[in-house]
């Protein structure tokens, strides 16, 4: 096909005329005409075939371009997926590391709380030996009518509570009351200051004896405003709130103990009835 097209291009329209006019007679002229018609039909068929091939090549080229474009998109998507997978794997690793760190911190916290509770129990035992049973007024008569030492949100419940995040249990012998550092802390009842000082896990701590083996404890204080053996009245300032020894930030830690054992504190206060 290419050879024929080159021949037509070189010879142009003059050659057919030469062939026609070179005829010597009518018979030869007629043969030349038929010959030229056959050549024209053949060339037309070649041209149609060429056009069809061009259309086919054009369609195939468009199809190839579409395939190449699709492959480029697939490659881009694959690259994006690889990056996403890599990032997800990295994030999962960091998440697991963070969870493990939190779990280890929680385990250490539980150990510290148990140790702090043990230290406090030892201190209370020593203080009990110094008290005369029945000393002072009867705080029991005021149960359910006392004012909290500070106003604020109660951050935890008293007693054995389950930590759903770590599927473990923690024992709260008292409550933490959220309060900004520097808030006035007041004695919940008349009594005598039995202890002031720092105790591991409780920070700055004040213990007041209210007679008949009743005690109130005020922890995480920023500063202490009373002295040992000082007699206090209900509402007297014993210190300022802070976060010394606290694992929950700014808060007052409050305990009530009877004969050295912690009891549920909220039932002693007015809010328990509201």
Describe the structure.
This protein is α+β, with helices and mostly antiparallel strands. The chain folds into two domains: 1-129; 133-273, Glucose Permease (Domain IIA), CATH 2.70.70.10. The protein contains three helices and eleven strands, in the order H-H-H-E-E-E-E-E-E-E-E-E-E-E. It has helices at residues 2-11, 14-21, 26-128; strands at residues 159-163, 168-172, 175-178, 184-186, 191-199, 203-209, 214-224, 231-232, 237-241, 251-258, 261-263. The strands form two sheets. Strands 3, 4, 5, 6, 7, 8, 9, 10 and 11 form a nine-stranded antiparallel sheet that branches. A two-stranded antiparallel sheet has the order 1-2. Helix 2 runs antiparallel to helix 3 (26-128). The longest helix is centred in the N-terminal third of the chain and has 103 residues, at 26-128. The chain is rod-shaped. It starts with a helix and ends in an 11-residue tail after the last strand.
